[in-house]
Write a structure and sequence with these properties.
Two copies of one chain form a homodimer.
Chain A (H helix, E strand, L loop, with lengths): L2 H6 L5 E3 L8 H9 L4 E4 L5 H14 L4 E6 L5 H10 L4 E5 L4 H9 L3 E6 L2 H9 L4 E5 L5 E2 L7 H11 L4 E4 L5 H9 L4 E4 L1 H4 L8 H9 L5 E4 L6 E4 L2 H11 L4 H8 L3 H7 L23 H17 L11
Parallel strand pairs in A: 1-9, 2-3, 3-4, 4-5, 5-6, 6-8, 8-9
Antiparallel strand pairs in A: 7-11, 10-11
């Protein structure tokens, strides 16, 4: 039995990442209905918006789903109150100390998963009592660790160090990369960019198209002097990279970033001036698909590859 | 049949990376004798040294081995003349245009493999007629691509784009990461850091010990304004990182780097002032081992994992 499927009450160990401006109730419920775990990205939602999104998700699916809460969220008490009151079964926490909320959520029967980018923080999360960790590598979109450890190096290290199950994230988008994650010791995968480019994602259509059209080398880990974030190349990103090359101060970078750019880019579709967060695998995506088709094709490809592991490709000479 | 084993005439699709100052005849012959492909790293050898190393390798093994030649090497004609004259069966080229020498080497019956860090260069290498490519990701030690594409993202992209076989490199050090590479579409792995920390590596013992003791996050891709290279943290690396943060010019960085630092660090064991090139997986290595034990344990672990792919860990609920 897969420990993540058991823990989260899902059929498939395929988790859709909570992503600001991209993962509302339509995407989360579609992924959960397809047998994976859908996640609402609460980092970009006002408290009343999150309540509304949770209710809409519950109306659209009777399967488990989760809310992702960045622990630095300013009105976090209100988010957590809604989660408890409305009976959300699973919470993914990130960007903060997992001790802060884990016991409280557990006391209400809620499963807690924490996102980490190093063994050090994985062990802290395990000590804080979380039920599982997401080990997210350098290639992932959005906010990211300072050590720049890639998924291939991070996942086996975290899986070896922790007794709780590990979910691999960063660079995973299909059955092939999912099988690789399992070979590395993961018991589930968390997938972001592939679901941004889905019919149900709340990303603006222009951003979805830009993700599908992205070429090799078109993302870069940026703004390391603030919080590292992987950005898709556009006018704004080039200004950031020029400022960084010109040794801009953190204050200058914060001013350049300003406020509301992520919404402007990913939700409102301003491809020139918006902040476009996406993973390296954007260059591997060729089409916009229904979320259910994405889940089904990952399952199909994973099963075919793992069933065929004795095929000539995997067989070494004796 | 594994195409790389067939192409190179080896029993196992395990290739030891050619690494300056670390991979002389003792390591190369040990790996070849163990059933993999050993490689002499010619980038740090004078022409007469390479000739001597080739002869010593041939005296120590009757199995195939290779020479890695950076195509920017100043006396490359002499290197290539020795390779042809002494009957080296395989050449790995890197850092330059694969068109330059491929036809010449082929005309002498020598197999040619080229190292790339992007699909774009993989297709150029294939068009130049090379027999296989090494797709090397961001996590690899030593010199590296500018796009920062990780092994997990790079290998499936290259494998899908090319018809020639793909060897995965970067972050691979054991059976688990080797199986992941095969899941991604690779037909062999090239392993560097793990073989630096071997008995037969020509690295200085102090450098080997530093590799084994390296912790999480202790390497960083550095000197991007010159040629990107992944360095292990030490006094010199910290001076580079400070200079980079202070917006040093390429000329200032070149002056800071100076000449001979790689030899000073990796070969002479100056851990403070030497340039120490190593991959992210250094933090995963716990011991110095004989090269043959490394090859055997990778084979054993790979076979066990791939034979056990129907075990509970890999089995998804129906």
């Amino acid at each position: 039995m897969n420990r993540i499927c058991e823990l989260l009450g899902v059929r498939l160990p395929i988790i859709q990442a909570g992503m600001i401006w991209c993962s509302g109730w339509e995407l989360a419920s579609a992924v959960s209905n397809a047998g994976g775990l859908g996640i609402l990205g609460a980092g970009s939602m006002y408290p009343e918006v999150l309540r509304d999104q949770i209710k809409k998700t519950q109306a659209a699916t009777d399967r488990p789903f989760a809310v992702n809460v960045p622990l630095i969220y300013p009105s976090i008490e209100e988010h957590m109150a809604s989660i408890v009151e409305l009976g959300v079964p699973v919470v993914f926490t990130s960007a903060g100390n997992p001790k802060a909320w884990t016991d409280h959520l557990h006391a209400h029967g809620i499963r807690v998963v924490h996102v980490v980018s190093s063994v050090k923080f994985a062990l802290k999360a395990q000590a804080a009592g979380v039920d599982a960790v997401v080990a997210e590598g350098f290639e992932a979109g959005g906010h990211n660790g300072r050590e720049e450890t890639t998924t291939l190096c991070l996942v086996p290290a975290v899986a070896e160090a922790c007794s709780i199950p590990v979910i691999a994230a960063g660079g995973i988008h299909d059955g092939r990369t999912t099988l690789a994650a399992f070979a590395l010791g993961a018991e589930a995968v968390q997938i972001g960019s592939r679901f941004v480019a889905s019919h149900e994602s709340s990303a603006h259509r222009a951003f979805k198209d830009a993700v599908v059209e992205a070429g090799e080398g078109s993302t870069r880990l940026s703004l390391k002097a603030l919080t590292p974030v992987r950005l898709l190349e556009n006018d704004f990103a080039h200004r950031v990279w020029t400022a960084e090359a010109d040794h801009a101060s953190p204050e200058q970078l914060a001013e350049l970033l300003g406020r509301g750019r992520a919404k402007r880019g990913m939700f409102e579709g301003d491809l020139a001036e918006g902040e476009l967060e996406i993973g390296q695998v954007a260059s591997r995506l060729a089409d916009l698909l229904p979320a259910a088709d994405i889940v089904a094709s990952i399952e199909r490809e994973y099963r075919a590859l793992s069933a065929g592991i004795h095929d000539p490709h995997f067989a070494w000479p004796e």
